[in-house]
């Protein structure tokens, strides 16, 4: 029983610019060379082989592809046949030699998209609102003239915070403003719902003894809550970074619970998981940090020492190779290693140049190190391309 051979190509439906003529060095459908006979050697069902004239038996004789199929081409900068993709190559965009060399300034970049040099912002915190690519993406996320979206102008006195216009005090979590008694006419940010010195209205100071109210334990006082000076509160202890809370709501025992602990981190009942600690972030406040299996390295930075190449086996023990082209450092069980990016290979065994071979287009290492195509044969997506010969009988060179 004869085996049929079909055209193997990675282009998936992109037609060849022209079909190659076959030489006496015929190529089978798997990319291998058949030798100088001009016949396909086929294995029968009984395991025997017969020299079969493909043109007579109807089998499709395959020849090496030496011409390019769009969008691939060979340019002056090419190292291999058809190794330039005109749709994505920044140095050959749409045609050989067309380089996307716009000014990559102000959080912007020029790159080849669908064969056209295209301007884009490479930082999500910036936008190009004036339509002028020469100054890049000039509008920052907190731009009061382009708050959230281009053209959204905040009113005078407001700031842009997380894409919304608001007062500076609102952006800090304090919705109100009151005069600064020590530095008039400056204003201070406050919250009239809870501020003991600006309770409901600016300048209204609560009496901590709570005249006419039930006496409180020594570690408590009456302060502002809900805009009223009748709320029992815990005094700020000394040192002030160890606050306490009345978690059981019983005034008899006062503020019985210390916060910023693993049992009560940010508040009553905020218990950290086993292995976690309660860490006070100066920007965001107390929080349980470091998930199970993580180690706290610096401040509030947590890392998996078993598999983090930046902290492999210990904090700040960075694996080598981050600067090597197409090489990815790895950490396994606390030991450093590395691997090549997909479709790249380290064929020369040298560490300095990383994974230097692009096995998608290198016809000397097509699909893997040492897998060479025929001279001038196209390597595309890791395959030595072949196509049906355009003559009935293989021609000689």
How is this structure best described in words?
It is a single chain. The protein folds into 4 domains: 97 residues, no CATH class; 82 residues, no CATH class; 39 residues, no CATH class; 66 residues, no CATH class. The protein is mainly beta and 397 residues long. The chain has 2 helices and 30 strands. It has a two-stranded antiparallel ribbon. Strands 3-4 form a two-stranded antiparallel sheet. The chain is elongated, with a radius of gyration of 36 Å. The protein starts with 25 loop residues before the first strand and ends in a 9-residue tail after the last strand. This is Tryptophan synthase alpha chain. Keywords: Signal.
Task: Report the helical percentage.
Answer: under 10%
* Overall tally of domains: 4
Please tell me the overall pLDDT. 83
Major β-sheet strand ordering? 1-2
The secondary structure category is: mainly beta
Radius of gyration: 36 Å
Q: Report the count of strand segments.
A: 30
Please give the count of helices. 2
Largest sheet geometry: 2 strands, antiparallel
Q: What oligomeric state do the depicted chains represent?
A: single chain
């Amino acid at each position: 029983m004869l085996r049929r051979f079909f055209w193997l190509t990675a282009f998936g439906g992109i037609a060849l610019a022209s079909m190659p003529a076959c030489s006496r060095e015929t190529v089978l459908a798997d990319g291998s060379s058949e030798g100088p006979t001009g016949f396909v050697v086929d294995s029968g069902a009984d395991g025997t082989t017969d020299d079969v004239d493909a043109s007579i038996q109807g089998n499709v004789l395959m020849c090496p592809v030496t011409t390019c199929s769009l969008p691939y081409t060979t340019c002056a900068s090419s190292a291999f046949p058809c190794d330039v993709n005109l749709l994505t190559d920044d140095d050959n965009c749409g045609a050989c030699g067309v380089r996307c060399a716009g000014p990559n300034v102000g959080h912007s970049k020029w790159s080849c998209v669908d064969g056209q040099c295209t301007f884009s912002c490479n930082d999500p915190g910036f936008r190009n609102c004036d339509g002028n690519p020469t100054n890049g993406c000039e509008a920052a996320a907190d731009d009061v003239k382009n708050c959230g979206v281009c053209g959204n102008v905040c009113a005078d006195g407001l700031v842009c915070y997380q894409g919304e216009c608001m007062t500076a005090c609102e952006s800090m979590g304090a919705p109100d403003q009151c005069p600064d008694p020590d530095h008039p006419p400056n204003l201070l940010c406050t919250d009239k719902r809870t501020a003991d010195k600006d309770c409901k209205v600016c300048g209204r100071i609560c009496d901590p003894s709570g005249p006419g109210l039930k006496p409180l334990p020594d570690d408590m006082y009456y302060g502002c809550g809900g805009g009223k000076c009748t709320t029992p509160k815990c005094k700020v202890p000394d040192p002030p970074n160890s606050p306490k809370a009345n978690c059981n709501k019983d005034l008899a025992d006062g503020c019985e619970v210390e916060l910023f602990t693993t049992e009560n981190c940010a508040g009553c009942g905020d218990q950290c998981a086993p292995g976690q600690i309660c860490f006070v972030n100066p920007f965001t406040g107390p929080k349980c940090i470091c998930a199970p299996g993580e180690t706290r390295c610096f401040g509030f930075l947590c890392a998996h020492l078993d598999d983090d190449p930046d902290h492999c086996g210990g904090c700040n023990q960075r694996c080598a190779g981050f600067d090597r082209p197409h090489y990815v450092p790895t950490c396994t069980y606390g030991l450093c290693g590395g691997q090549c990016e997909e479709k790249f290979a380290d064929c020369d065994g040298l560490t300095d140049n990383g994974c230097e071979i692009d096995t998608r287009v290198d016809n000397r290492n097509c699909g893997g190190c040492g897998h060479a195509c025929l001279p001038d044969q196209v390597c595309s997506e890791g395959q030595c391309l072949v196509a049906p010969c355009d003559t009935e009988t293989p021609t000689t060179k």
